Amino acid sequence: MSIHSNEARCTSCHIGYGWKDKSFDFTDASKVDCLVCHEHTGTYKKFPAGAGNPVKEPILFPGDGITYLPPEWNKVAQSVGRPTRENCGVCHFYGGGGDMIKHGDLDSSMTKPNKALDVHMGVDGKNFDCTRCHTTSAHQVAGRIYSTPAATERRTLVQDDLTPRITCESCHTATPHKPGVKANDHTDKVACQTCHIPEFARALPTKMRWDWSTAGQKKDGKPYKEKGPLGTTVYDTQKGNFTWDKNVKPQYFWYSGRIDAVSLKDPVDPTQPVALNWPVGRPEDPNARIAPFKVHTGKQPYDTVNKTMLVPHLFGPPDSAAYWAKYDWQIALESGMKKAGLPFSGQFDFVETSYVFPTTHMVAPKEKSVSCNECHTKENSRMANIKGVYLPGRDGNKVIEVLGWVAVLGSLAGVLLHAFGRAVSRRRKEG
User: Fold this and answer.
1) How far is Cα of residue 86 from the mean position of the Cα atoms in its chain?
2) Is residue 52 pLDDT above 90, yes or no?
3) pLDDT exceeds cutoff 80 at 270
4) 12-42 pLDDT, tens digit each
5) Local structure of 165: helix, strand or coil
6) What is the rounded CA–CA span in Å between residue 17 and residue 30?
7) Is the pLDDT confidence value at 430 over 70?
8) CA-CA distance, 404 to 60, in Å (whole number)?
9) In this predicted model, what pLDDT tens digit does every residue of 155-199 receive, in sequence order?
10) Is 292 exposed, middle or buried, given 0-12, 13-18 or 19+ CB atoms closer than 10 A?
11) How much is the pLDDT for 151?
C-alpha cells in the first residue's frame, strides 16, 4: 500500500518526529529521531499512531491492546551507543505491520540466532551484529538497493580495506573455496547466497500472500481475526486473507544490486499479475548474478479505467474516510488518491500482484548448502526459470547430445580397434 493519507500510522516505524502529512520537512535535522537506532534500554517505543512521536502520557492503543508509556528520558539518553540487532530489528524484523511479514530472512528469530540459522550472526558462532556488514559513511548505510545498487564495484577488503562489507565477496573474495573446487567457477554468475541460503523462514513462518480483496468481512457485525495451523493470522477483517509458510525455497533472478518498481503513475496490465517491483539484471551484465528472492504475492486495488494502482486511505478516526473506519473501499480509495494528488476514475477492482525481497540473511552452515543436483537437473531444478545461461544437467540439445554420444562411442571404438590392432601385430611379431 502507500504512505499517502496513512502517515500517522506508517511513520511510527520511521526515524522522524511528527511526520503526519505531506508537509513534513525532510531537510529539518531536528526531526531525525536518533534514539530509534542508538538507544540500548529497549524501552523506547513509538506510539503506533503518533506520526513518529513517543507519548507524553500513558495511552492505550486499541490495535494491539498495549498501553504505551512516556520514555524514561534520562535512562534512554544515557544508554546511547552503536546500533544493535535490537535497534535494527525494531523496523526490519517487524516491517509491514508485524513480525515475519515482509522479509523472509529477517524476523525476531534473528535477534539471537544460533549459527544453524545464520553462521555470521549466530550467538554461538561469529556473533556479528548488523553494522558489521552494513557499514556507514555519514549515516549513509551500505545496502540501499532502490536508488543505487547495493554495491557499484565488486571490491574486496583485500583490495581496499575501506570498502563497504556489504557483499559476500567483500570478505570472502571471488574465490571463496579452496583452490581447484568447482564452486569457485560459479562466482561470476551465481551469488553466494544462492547456494548458501537453501531456504528462508527456517525458524518462524513468513507471510507469502496478502489478499486485500477479501477484507471487510465481519462476524456478528464485528471485525474479527482467525489463526491458521502455523499459529499466525490467516484472516483479518481489516486486511483480508493471508498465507504463511516455513522453510521456503527462494525464487531466483538475475540481479545487479538494484531493484526497480512501478509508480502510481505507471500503467499496469490487469490481464496478468502485476510485478510491483523487480530485480534489475541481465546475463550479459558483468555485475549481475543469479540471486535468491522471496516473492510475495497478493491482490490489491487498481483503477479499471486509468489502469493504475490505487492508494487506499486505511488508517484514521471513526469519522474519517479511512477504510478501517467505515470498511468502504470506494470512499477510502477516493480519499487516498486525493491525498496523493493523483486522478481516480471512481472505478476499481483488485488485481494480482507480486513483490520481491532480496534474501541475504539466514546463511546456513556450509554442510547445509544447496547440493549440485538441485540445480543441475531437468526435474524440479531450482534454476528452472533462469534464462540466458547454459546449465549442464538442466539444458540440452538432442541433436548435439546424439552427436556427442556418437563422438564418444566412435572414440571408444577407435581406441578398442587400435588396441586390437596392436595386439594382433604383437602376436605376429612373436610368431
Assistant:
1) 19
2) no
3) yes
4) 777 888 888 888 888 999 999 999 999 999 9
5) coil
6) 8
7) no
8) 74
9) 776 676 666 668 888 889 889 999 999 999 999 999 999 999 999
10) buried
11) 65
DSSP β-bridge partners for residue 294: 357
Cell 548474478 belongs to residue: 289
Closest CA to 116 of 372, 368, 374: 368
d(CA 121, CA 27): 35
Q: Which three cell numbers stand for residue 121?
A: 550472526
Q: How far is CA 10 from CA 19, 355, 422, in A?
A: 9, 19, 84
Rg (CA), the chain: 27
CA 273 to chain centre: 19
Q: Is residue 170 a contact partner of residue 164, using CB atoms and an 8 Å limit?
A: yes
Beta bridge pairs of residue 355: 296
The DSSP output letter for 242 is E
Between β-strands 140-141 and 136-137, what pairing exists: parallel, antiparallel or unpaired?
A: antiparallel
Pairing of strands 277-280, 258-261: antiparallel
Q: Which cell goes with 380? A: 524440479
Query: Shortest CA distance to 14 belongs to which of 49, 45, 52?
Result: 52
Residue 176, Cβ density class (10 Å: 0-12 exposed, 13-18 middle, ≥19 buried): middle
Helix (H, G, I), strand (E, B) or coil at 219: strand
Nine-digit cell string for 209 = 500472500
Q: How many CB atoms within 10 Å of residue 104? A: 31
Q: Taking a C-beta distance cutoff of 8 angstroms, is the pair 25, 31 a contact?
A: yes
Contact 358, 348 (CB under 8 A): no
Partners of residue 292 on adjacent β-strands = 252
Question: Between the CA of residue 227 and those of 44, 224, 232, what are the distances in Å?
Answer: 30, 10, 5
What residue ranges do the domains of the chain occupy?
1-81
Return the higher-pLDDT residue of 15 and 235: 235
Angle at 317 between CA 313 and CA 319, to 5 degrees: 95
**pLDDT (tens digit, 9 = 90+) per residue, 118-131?**
999 999 999 999 99
